[in-house]
Specification:
This protein is α+β, with helices and mostly antiparallel strands. The chain folds into 2 domains: 102 residues, 2-Layer Sandwich (Phosphorylase Kinase, domain 1), CATH 3.30.200; 234 residues, Aminoglycoside 3'-phosphotransferase, Chain: A, domain 2 (Alpha-Beta Complex), CATH 3.90.1200. Helix 8 crosses helix 10 and helix 10 runs antiparallel to helix 11. The longest helix is centred in the C-terminal third of the chain and has 28 residues. Strand 2 and strand 3 form a beta hairpin. The protein is built from 12 helices and 9 strands. Helices cover 49% and strands 12% of the residues. The strands form 3 sheets. It has a 5-stranded antiparallel sheet with strand order 1-2-3-5-4, covered by helices on one side. Strands 6-9 form a two-stranded antiparallel ribbon.
Amino acid sequence: MTVASTATGRNAVQAALHEIGYPEGLIQEQLEGGASTRQFFRVQLGERSSIAMYTPAPSQEIAKARQSTGYGSFVEVAELLFARELPVPKILAASQTSPVLFVEDLGNYTLAHYLAAHPHRKEALYRRAVATLARAQLALSPVPPGSVIGTRSFDYDLLHWEVEHFRQWAITARGIQLDPADDDIFSRAAHFLASTIASWERGFVHRDYQSRNIMVQGSPQDETLAWIDFQDAMLGPRVYDLVALLTDSYQTFSPEFVEKRLDEYCELTGALSERKRIEHEFFLVTVQRKLKDAGRFVFLDRVNKNRHFLQFVEPTIEKARRALFHVRDVGPLAELDDLLTRLFGPLG
């Protein structure tokens, strides 16, 4: 993030503080952001600490992925989730003249941060995260008519664009050349993944349900979880958020850990009879999402000059390939598996 863009965010928040009646409001610190253009500041509103979220217009590439601009979508989705008794921050105030929103301060600990200090709590917290997701899917089935969530979905165009993000950034941009035959193999696999996943029934999807977007409050043995970064919620496959959670690029899980969480999800959603089908969907979506994530991390390095994400490129490609092993007998995915082995070497 450039100094100029940071200053723009601070100035916007300071002006918003005047607008909402807190001219003496203090910007205490800028918080670590994620992969988007949003900026976050801890701000004192009288006696209350809040988080100011500044949401400028997204980059062209992010716009193609249909991420929202401004804070309108955040407010609408937050109100819907809150009405379903799902754990989201309260909205405290909003600027009417700039894209600045003030929300409840949920503290400093994302699930990722919390587990670094309390690794022994991993299983208990992930069981809770799966249970909360299952509750959300049941509470939002179907998504209410007229909701912004229902206006956007993981359709063929979006899913295909995301897989192509891998070819563009994790392959071509890194100087890896595909010959015409290999190019065709990747094209067939991208079409197969996008068309197959797009054909499934769609329901509520948080979209980025992973350890940096779940907040932990309370002390060990008495934790509660809350969601953030849900403004781009949309319609998609039932396993999408499970994939985001259990193949998180910032965490490592054993196959047995993932299997147990899938069992819990099926039990909580009443889908035990579909257990094998859900696992099949899980692996297919893992291939699609992890390829996209790997490409995204290179994009963030090359275009946004954010070096932090580069360390996750190779582990994320490996997660896609390990999932691919389970579904390589489907459609053209054996060819894709062989292609990735030629490009990146055999898995350890």
